[in-house]
Amino acid sequence: MAIYTDVFLAPEAELQAARLETAHPSNYFPTVSAKNCTEFEFAKLEAILEGQDPYTLLDERLRAFALIQEYENCWVYQLPDRLAKMLADLTFSEAENTANIWAHTEELRPRDGRPVDSSSLREYLQQVAQLAMRAQQEGKRLYLWIGV
């Protein structure tokens, strides 16, 4: 079963008014869509961006993802400000290097065990970084919507 995951930016008041239990975030907010990039994968991404092993302090990193909304088939987390800042500051070359490491983490591998194509992961990471820059410029936060 696929897990749908979207990173989006929103002002807090508009987030509370959105009906994300019945509608996709892209109906309301600027969004970057993916599959299977949950808070777990983003916690590992944060470690990679810090130059650490993806599994370093993983439990501590996961606790930094604030659960904002919870419904029967979807959840909304606020990305940690520190991660959002690192994403906003990400350069093209850093995105490429980060994607190469991130693609080789065990959980991102498909069931056949091969690594994910790092070029598509790099493109996704660059889109998320652009969204993070926009959030920073507009004084908004980044959120992660997970739907099953």
Could you characterize the architecture of this molecule?
By secondary structure, this protein is of the alpha+beta class. Helices cover 43% and strands 20% of the residues. A 5-stranded antiparallel β-sheet has the order 2-1-5-4-3. It starts with a strand and ends with a strand. The mean pLDDT is 93.
Could you list some keywords that capture this structure?
about 150 residues; alpha+beta; Hypothetical protein yfbM fold; 6 helices; about 20% strand; globular
What's the topology here?
Layout (H helix, E strand, L loop, with lengths): L3 E7 L1 H6 L13 E5 L3 H11 L8 H6 L2 E5 L3 E5 L2 H8 L3 H12 L14 H21 L2 E7 L1
Q: Tell me the total number of β-strands.
A: 5
- Average pLDDT over all residues: 93
Annotation field: number of helices? 6
Residues in helix, %: 40-55%
Q: Could you tell me how far the N terminus lies from the C terminus, measured between alpha carbons in angstroms?
A: 8 Å
Overall outline: globular
Looking at the structure, the CATH topology is Hypothetical protein yfbM fold
Order of secondary-structure elements: EHEHHEEHHHE
Tell me, what is the CATH class?
Answer: Alpha Beta
